[in-house]
Amino acid sequence: MQIINWWRRGRHRLAFRIVLHFTGLLAVMLGVAFVMVSVVNMSIFRGTAALSLESDEKVFRRLLEYNTSNLIQGASVLAGDYGLREAIGTGDMGTLLSALNNHSRRIGATMAMVSGLDNHLLADTLHPDQSDQAYPFKALLAEAEKRGNASSIELIDGVLYRIVVVPVRAPTTIAWITIGFPMDERRASELHNLAGVHVSFLSHNQSNWQLLTSTFSPEQRQSLLATLKQFPTAGMLKLNGETFETRLALLADTPHGQVYALLAGSLDVALQPAYKLRGISIVLTAFALLVGSLIGARLARRITDPLRALAVVAQHIQAGDYQQEISITDTSEIGQLAGSLTHMQEAIALRETEISKLAFQDSLTGLPNRVRFNQCLDEAITMAQANQSYFTVLLVGLDRFQQINDTLGHQNGDRVLIEVSQRLSAAINVGDVVARLAGDEFALLLSGLQMNTALQSIDRIHTVFVQRFNLDGRLLDVRASIGLVGFPEHGDTAADLMRCVDVALYRAKRSGSHHALYDPGTKTFREEHLSLLGDLQQAVEHNELIVYYQPKVGLGPYSADEAEALVRWKHPTKGFVSPGEFIPYAEQTGYIKELTHWVLVQVIRQAGQWLREGRPVKVSVNLSTRDLVDQGLPATIATLIDRAGLPPEYLCLEITESGFMEEPAEALNVLQKLRSLGLSLAIDDYGTGYSSLAYIRRLPITELKIDRAFIIELASNVGDAKIVRSTIDLGHHLGLKVVAEGVEDMVVVDILAEMGCDSIQGFVFGKPMPVAEFDRWREARMARPTLASANLARFSGPSAVQ
Amino acid sequence: MRQVLPCLLALLPLFCAAKLTVQILNPSEQAVGDAVVYAEPLAGKAPKGKLTGTIDQVNKEFVPLVSVVQTGTAIRFPNKDNIRHNIYSFSRTKVFDLRLYSGTPSEPVVFDTPGLVVLGCNIHDWMVGYLLVVDTPWFDTTNTKGLVNLDNLPSGDYSLRVWHPYQSAEIPAQKIRVGPGAETHFVFHMKLSPPPAAAHANY
């Protein structure tokens, strides 16, 4: 179980795998070597055993020959015995037989016979009673006659004999003596002792094997007898559990069958050295494997220990700890890896610092950015809530910074921003925060400051801008608007506070005053407007917007062929939404461009229609500040009027002084392009701004619209009357057409007429109305040729914006 | 036996005897020595010749190898070697056994039956001597030229026989007539087998 766990845990580890592969390879190699050596050894030893058996057979045969010659000599001595010869020579058969018995026993023979030259037996110790039998081994005799003696191996009555034949001479050959020596167990044992192999004598007659004698144990003999049926000529033989290499040697081919000697060397004995060698080789293999495994483990540890250390380091780096000492002095790949890791750690630390800087710091000024400021705000809120304290947030927006950028270049703009940031930083107390939120917006968090005492701080901030900015000797006047909010009175979250201070700044800018406290009343206004964003877009898409036309009536010969287009919004749930509510919002969000475009499309189409109907109306459309910086606007309008087939003189564009002053250069460019199209251009709300007529003179305008503020009390206010009169005069002198707005009664109409005003726009003649109503009004108007009849159209009601 | 010749020669004038010359050749016409040639009269009894003889033992050999004597001859066996010899015969013609002795035994051995006697020495197995006992005084052994002269044969019919110990087959006797004008020169051809293995000669 433990081993299984160890395996499961370890098999994915590098060290384990290295050891496994190393040891496995070693084991395979050693195994192969071991098997090969064993097999080769075995076969060598077996071959040796077979070879040794072959030489054993030679030895065996030599021994037989040697014995035979000994036996022949013995037989010759016997044959030379005088008594024997005398008995033969004298035909004394009784003496002969007893002499044969006696003498043959003397030399260890158990059989002896004497035959005469006529091949008949004279005496036979095996059959002493029979006489004059034919001699049985005639072939042997023939050989003996030739060679002087002969020997062979014969089976006599089932007993194996080695027999020798020698002549009996007296002194010439008078008889033959044949002597037989039994090849019995004793003989076999002698051979066994001399040749070192087991010896068995076998006879084979007509596929019938017989075991004559053997040096095997009785059990092995039984075993051998059992295998005699399919006898191999040589090879392995398993006898009673012991394996033998055997060799079958033909000894004699007698009339009674072949006689074989089976030589058997014990393989178990022969292979003893091989087994011993195998034992040694097993021990050596195991030892080599053990040593190999240890080396493998050591090698693996040398590789994996540093790797594991590096892995730990990498884990720490992952967790954000970049201050680790990596102490690997290795010069190998692992050392390089360690070096890389060290560098990586440093690089990551460096980059993380950079990133956090970028994330929380404004790269230009080095001040905290919006994200960081919001964090500070959150902290300040938490702290103030805990301490029951308060703080003020200031949003500082540089006035007309875009102008500085455009005229002096971004580089100088950046220098101004840096200067401002430095001055602001210097102006605040320790513990307060200055941050740059966006382009020209800076935020200040002034702790311990209450709203009612905040205005003093405002002065302190404003003094920052008193000193002019020196850009390479050019002195630059930079002003700022400031919005203020206080915690806890204006909000209790950073988001709330920022939204409020945004509104406050907006108000400050719009109002032209240099600073504004946040007014909770504007909050709802603003929020409502924000919710209108989607609604307004939807309104354009679903035609909820309607263009109203307010007539401009000419005072010379009364005419009714001009009108100002005013957009109205019929909200599906809120009913009519005042333009005063959504137009500023549209301007603020930039949606005004789409709105203007939509109005232009409607108006140009309508004007075209009126023109085709034979009662042309010259329509004025209001352009916003943003429209004036849109360089593509002239081309758009040109395309629109061209498509509608409307001559340019039927379209007038109205702009405000303030809208123009925001980006005067770009606005001028756009105006000139519009004018060159042949369009009329009017200054709306003239008199409320700061622009002088001299300045206006340089603009390509054709019309002045005097602001209603001067008209309303025209009849009673002498000052206003003077201003209006001189404005009309001046306008006329500049070649401009002059229009009075907000005219509500005929008295004023008469005064204006007397002053020489060109056109009147106001409820006295007609309120803004939809196309159909406008058409009806116009028809009625045309029917009444005199100015006096305009009184009929007069009615009272809420004044429409513009 | 050549000693017998002067004796026979002495008888020659008495019978007006004839002289026969016999030559024995092998199939290759080469002379065969040590062959016995004897002539037996077909009628009447042959006269007695000299009835003594000697067979020496010289240098562990019987000398001569082949001897021929008339029946009834007494032969002495002088031992000329400085070692002792035994002489025996198991031949049916004459079985005898002279115990080991040196010098000349006091009593000669009398061979009174015709036939072959093979002589051996009990302690020197290779020593062999052939003694042919014949019933006639006219005999001799061939010299190295294969020649034999038989002298003093009275006229009459004879059976002329030849014998050699190594002959491979018996040579048939030849009937001859001795007398004036009769053939006196005879040639026999004889094939010899090599003597039996002389394995013992080295002892």
Q: How many extended strands of chain B?
A: 17
What is the distance, rounded to the nearest whole angstrom, between the alpha carbons of the first and last residues of chain A?
94 Å
> Which percent range fits the helix content of chain B?
under 10%
What is the radius of gyration of chain A? Answer: 69 Å
Q: What is the level 1 CATH name of the largest domain in chain B?
A: Mainly Beta
| Poorly predicted runs of chain A | 786-802
How far from one another are the termini of chain B?
A: 30 Å
User: What is the beta-strand fraction of chain A?
Assistant: 15-25%
Structural write-up:
The complex is a heterodimer of chains A (802) and B (203). With 802 residues, chain A is of the alpha+beta class. Chain A has four domains: 103 residues, PAS domain (Beta-Lactamase), CATH 3.30.450.20; 85 residues, Beta-Lactamase; 158 residues, Alpha-Beta Plaits (2-Layer Sandwich), CATH 3.30.70.270; 265 residues, EAL domain (TIM Barrel, Alpha-Beta Barrel). Chain A contains 27 helices and 26 strands. In chain A, the strands form five sheets. Chain A has an eight-stranded mixed barrel with strand order 18-19-21-22-23-24-25-26, surrounded by five helices. Chain A has a five-stranded antiparallel β-sheet with strand order 2-1-5-4-3, sandwiched between helices. In chain A, strand 16, helix 15 and strand 17 form a beta-alpha-beta unit. Chain B is built from one helix and 17 strands. Chain B has two domains: 95 residues, Immunoglobulin-like (Sandwich), CATH 2.60.40; 86 residues, Sandwich (Immunoglobulin-like). The longest helix of chain B is centred in the N-terminal third of the chain and has 12 residues. With 203 residues, chain B is mainly beta. In chain B, the strands form six sheets. Chain B has a four-stranded antiparallel β-sheet with strand order 13-2-15-16, with no helix packed on it. Chains A and B meet through helix 3 of A and strand 11 and strand 12 of B.
